[in-house]
Amino acid sequence: MSIQATLSADSQVLTISVKGRFDFGAHQDFRNAYERSGLTPQEYVVDLHDTDYIDSSALGMLLLLRDHAGGDSAQISIVHCNPDVRKVLSISNFEQLFSIK
Amino acid sequence: MATQLSASALKVADRLTVLVADDNPADRMILGRLVERLGHQVYLAENGQVAVEQFSERRPDIVLLDALMPVMDGFEAARLIKQQAGEDLVPIIFLTSLTETDALVQCLEAGGDDFLTKPYNPVILDAKISAFRRMREMHQTLQAQRDVIAAQHASLLQDQEVAKIIFDRVAHSGALSHSSLRYLQSPYAMFNGDILLAANRPSGEMHLLLGDFTGHGLSAAIGAMPLAEVFYAMTAKGFALRDILFELNDKLATILPVGVFCCAVLIEVNPDKGLVEIWNGGLPDVMILGPSAELMRSVASTNLPLGVANRQRFNPQPEVMVMRPGERLLCWTDGVIESRNQAGELFGEAGVHEVLDAYLGHPGRIFDGLLGALERFHGSPEDDVSLLQVVMPERSERIPSPRATAPPSRPQDWCLSYTYRAASIREQNPLPFLLSRLLEIPGLRPQAGALFTVLSELYSNALEHGLLRLDSAWKQDSDGFALYYQERGERLRSLVDGWIRITLNHLPTPDGGMLQIECEDSGNGFAPDRACADYAGRGLALVAALAQEVEVKGASSTVRVVFSW
């Protein structure tokens, strides 16, 4: 598991990529990725291209990110999910809260 | 001597007690004096046996032990001293003029920690004693920390034991022993965050809740408490599934921190009408199997888990569908699907479907078959699984409950009338309130179930046919049924006009009392006699079976029911 955060050149978009298993072990790193001081992006992208597993605690972390980014007004897209990951997200109906691409 | 050593050079805390054992009186005295001049307190022993005795009596911090002594040599003494010292670190330094490698190795094997060769060099002696003092201090710190951690761990485990007892009583209780249910909940660590609740409404329907909190242990258990409390209290008061769902979501969203939520399936089983209501928020598909265990329908999760959405976003509308006696419903938490074997492969939905195929024609063996398949797949009993099976019971043709002996009540003579207008009808269910008023009459309490059924049938008739103008004829088959309830939800949401009036008229009689319930609505009436299909038109028939008198007035927009005891 490794988590990488990249800020776009104009500082507007923060992309967080998760490699490997996205579960409770990722909690601190995932949080650090968006809580670093001084970051005020307009938009967040969670890139799950290299994520092979996601569990319910990861869903919780996504909700925490959403809360951090302004709750209902947050702009967060979750991109590049493989079918298994996509399934977990849709069982919990997270497309109602995030833009899943 | 270049180095000035004196007792005053040491702080009190750094003073040690040192046992010196040597059979040679001159050597013993020289070493004893040396150690004393370093600032430590000295005990002397002339052989191994005396050294062991001195050790038990004085518990010195460090032992300086000659290897070769009469009565008991240093090797044996070292073994016995180490034994007595137990977990405490008591450094033993062998005093020796031996230089052969074998003899020195023997010293260490007997439990010695170091050697000091004669003749003694005071600087080296001081350095060694200081080094061992530091080692002792480190050891003591470690021991103390270990003891603190062990004590805290023990108390944590004890707290968890207590919490688990409470959690188990809350999480797996209610009407779970009902013959139509089978379930498995396996313990994972202390708690697994899975919760299974069952309770009966006064009118006889059963409510079930299968839930899975994110996380494990105490945080999951804490969320389970309010969940169970709301579920039981509202079911007992006769609230419908959607009211309970709304309240549960609200409660959890208020108290749980962001990121903690509860994936859940809520089910209402209504044997009288042959209906189930299912709401799935975040759990795997609920499956409904036919009489030969063929998969008839599955209900996928279409909702956010409980505790995530705010009021505006939350959709508490369950799916309503027909279930005939003997048909069965299966649901589980994601432990079943996500179960992995030693090779890391997932059991998955494919695994579930394999089991279903294998037991086609043997519905009674599905539940055990699924458990067996999971166990074989996993190689051991699966430890994070909750599984529930509900078999639709035979329709219980309910007869008016026998005249239960009620406590003598004072005569009550009153009438109350409530009119619910559109906004109230959209948002609320007035029945629990009305029922609680009625149950204040002692004579009516034994008949709470029948009363609630009558009230809810009258209210639904008025609402669905009078106000919403839904046609029972749709309820000919399962699809029509689904359409009916979908349409009901939509029309109810957009209701702007109309009212329903319920009048309760209570009269004392010589033996007991009489209750007239009148339900009137602003609609154009409905035709009670028409629909007699399997699933429809049972409402008024049910009311007629339970009450003494049923009268439909005014083009059927008013129904009067008499209930006496």
UniProtKB/TrEMBL annotation, chain A:
SUPFAM superfamilies the record matches: SpoIIaa-like (SSF52091)
Domain called STAS: residue spans: 3-101
Name of this chain's protein: Anti-sigma factor antagonist
Segments crossing the lipid bilayer: none
PROSITE patterns according to UniProt: STAS
Organism: Pseudomonas neustonica
Superkingdom assignment: Bacteria
